[in-house]
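Hi R.,

Quick one: here's the RNA polymerase-associated protein CTR9 sequence you asked about.
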Amino acid sequence: MASCVYIPVQNSEEEVCVALDQLPRDAADILDILKAEQAPLNLWLIIAREYYSQGKVDQFLQILDEGSGPEIDEYYADVKYERIAILNALGAYYTFLATTGPPEEKERNFVMATSYYNKASRIDTIEPSTWIGKALLCIARDERDKLEKAKENFRIVLEYNPKHVPGLLGQACVLFMMGEKEENIRKSQEFYKNALENYRESLRLFPNCPAVVRLGIGYCQYRLGQLGKARQAFNRVLQLDPDNVEATVALGVLDLQTNEAGNIRRGVEMMEQAHDLDPVNPMVLNHLANHFFFTGQHFLVEQLTETALENSGDHPLLKSQAFYNLARSYHSKGDYDKAGRYYMAAANEIRRPKDFVLPFYGLGQIQLKLKDLKNSLSSFQKVLVVYPENVESLKAIGHIHAQQGEFDKAVETFKKVTRIDPKDSQAFLELGELLLPIDANAALEALKTARNLLKRSGEDMPIELLNTIGVLHFEKEDFELAEQTFKEALGDGIWVSLLDEKLDHKVHNYGNALNLRDLGLFHQLEEDNESLDLPWDKVTTLFNFARLLEQRHDTIKASILYRFIIFKYPGYVDGYLRLAAIAKARHDFKLSIELVKDALKVDEKYPQALCMLADLQLKTDDWLKAKETIRAAKDATSGNDSYANLALGNWNYFAALRSSDKKGSKVEAMHLEKAKELCTKVLKEHKGNMYAANGTGIVFAEKGHFDVSKDLFTQVQEAAASGSTLVQMPDVWVNLAHIYLAQGQFSLAIKMYQNCLRKFYNGTDSTILLYLARAQYDAEQWQDCKKTLLRALHLAPSNPTLRFNIGVAMQKYSASTLQKTKRTAEEIRFTLSELENAVRMFRQLCGCTYYHSHGFDEKKFSTHVEYCQHLLEAAKVHCEAAEREEQQTRQRLEVARQVSLAEEARRKVEEQRKLQAEKRKQEDELKQVKQLEERFERVKEIWKTSTHASGGKRRERSRPDDEEGGERRRRRSSGGGSRRRKKDKRMGTQYEDDDGYAEVEYNDKSQDEAEEREYADNPANGSDDDAGPAPKSPDPLAAAGLDDSDADDDMGGPSRGSKKRRAFSESDEDEEPMIKKQRLSPSNSAGSDGEIREAKGNNVHDDEDDDM
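And here's the predicted structure, written out as tokens:
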């Protein structure tokens, strides 16, 4: 039953029934009814939507335009919702038209939509549908700022009604789109989380919402990496809507991304199911095309992508994916022109690389293949904008920089790749190849890292990688490591048996220098059924291994390997040239020339072979042929070969030397100028060519410009030292030494020759030894010169020049020795020996038959022999005189020696006597000290016993004793009173007995002994004024007052009491004195008045001092 609407008739209960499926073609008829009956505006909107659903857009617009006119606004002023609904419908229509219509009308349609939404807002500013329409308009503009505006519009809706489901869904959609456009991963994840929360809230508020809501939930969970939950959401969509194409495609994508056979099969089935539901869905078609591309079914890819392009409409991303699939198909088939066009079309469909970056990567590959480096670099850089650490794009950019000559940028790019992915062996391999001409050590480390990564991953090791590592070790002179690497690269083969000498009995017959051209060894091995396989990819490595053996002077094995290479690959020219080099090093120039000609049979215009042949012809003095050969080498390279130009320059240089011998100065100058011109030309073309710089320096030196040539040689020497070890230039060391010698700097020249000899020739080159001997001869170091020439003669015994120079050196040494004003007999005897050897050497040369070829003649030898004999006769006379003088000198020295010995013996006796006297003195002093100590101990024992006796004993003493004691005190006071008075100021005394005698205890035994020694040493103590001189060695105990009374009487010294008081008073100097008033004993009255007064005076003085 068809649906219909009923329009109420004005002022009546009747209604007009309008069947929606039978709407009139002319909308004016229905408009007349709506206006005449003043029908509700919702009926206007229903009829307009029906027209739109039937595809009658003009009638739809006619009804809505009439429904939004001024008359309707005036008549239906109180009806807000319906008026707003009509305006929003118009706004939605123009929004849709802007996104799907022609591009030139896009902006106008957006303006129209905006005007209708604004008009609706003026009717009611808080109507949610209007704000939602405005938000959708912002979304349609697809701009970041517009998305922010749309988000703000949805926020306004949700502020008025947080449970507004369309607002929540719109907000979720905007947040998801913002997450898609956000470049920061963390922020984009936040957008997806917020969008998911809004979708879930909508589902909670309206559980019966359409299935597409759950589709949005699945998309958010997919972006958040929650693949399991996303799969559940898509499955729920299909449960609610089994024909939902988007959910079917999403499940298919999830299965395809697992890269498992079963899941891939199920994913393809899902895609086919989606294709059955919508055969023209471009998204489905693109996914199917992507699958069939990987299966190699390119005809299906092209069919599907063409259908997708026809149905993509104006959706740029879907069109870009279709173009990309089509471009990949042509790319894989090698049709680079079509692939490039479709890659370009795919890139042009998208606004930003972030939306779909793969076309830029493919486009960059095609441009790189077609050598469009600039555009290719731009394409890969766009990929890096989206994925800054994309390793493949960085590698491509590194290759582009390398091809553009920007090696620094290329190296930095590959270093970045290795930092991003330290396990990328290919990146380390390419980095090592880039570093080879820049930094050999860094290149070696990178290549070794690549080798280790390949070993750990179990991948096959490229022979090229091992070969390069071996060459780098070879250049660093790490020959052991180089040998190990080459052997690892070569593996097992016949060369192992050859090197391990398992076939020694066969090798012996073919390994010497005479058989360098003979390949009979290998024919014999074939007859013996030995395996002689040599894969083509191992030839270079085997050649390098042979080169290593040659460098280590194992030329026998090296020549066998070279011949084996030639046997297997007769066209390998370098094998012939290395054999020629071995023959040349052995001075077998004939064999070397034959081997070079064998190489020229393979390639008659091979420049290296021609140049080597010319060099050999120069060494054999075949100058005309050498010049022709050099010109042939130059013509073979169209005149651009540096080696050929330098060889021609060398020819002109040697021609100049030959013309100088013939005194042709003009010819010499012409050849030198030509040599300079050729070397300078090469140097201009190749500024780093050390051989050209060396040749230029030689020409300047020949012209006498030593300073210029020395600067050139020094620069070449420094460059050679910092370069590869394979590039060795001993010639520049020799040339620099020649310059020093020419300038008279003999020590520098000698040092340079010695360094060159040690560094390059291991001290075994007779020519350099001859140069060194010349420098030593000019420096007047004739003995060193002779030793150097003898070393050279040991290396080249048949060289008459060396023998002649040895004789001249001995002759010159002898002459200089005889000319010395002071010389010893030993020197003259050695001179005689040298002269005899020189005569013998010159006479031997006279007997040689080949000396004429070296520029000698018999007359020259005879002259030297006569001169040496003359010196020999003079030396004998000088020797006799020197011997007599030496005998006299020995006698004088012997006399002087005897005198010296006698003086030395006397001095030793005197020293011994002094030592004995000193020793006796020390023994006497020790003995005396010991006696004093024993006596002091005995007196101490006496005093200890006397301390316990009665104090009345002193009273029993007789008066004469007191008088005698008084006399002693007077004598003592007269001599040392002043000293005692000074010391009494410091001492503390305590008188305790009734008779006035003090009993003093020892406080410090060491101070008592010191005072005793001081008193004993003072000659003024213990004597009267009238007394004679003091004895030389008084008794120390008596001087200290420690002897007994009988001894005192005998010696006439001071009384015992006074001595004790003095000794004890000085023992307590460090203590605080405690003085009591002295009481006079009756026994003291017997003394003289002067003595008593003096005692009182002393006491009073002491008290005054105390008071003070």
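Residues 950-1012, 1014-1108 have pLDDT under 50 and may be disordered.

Cheers,
M.
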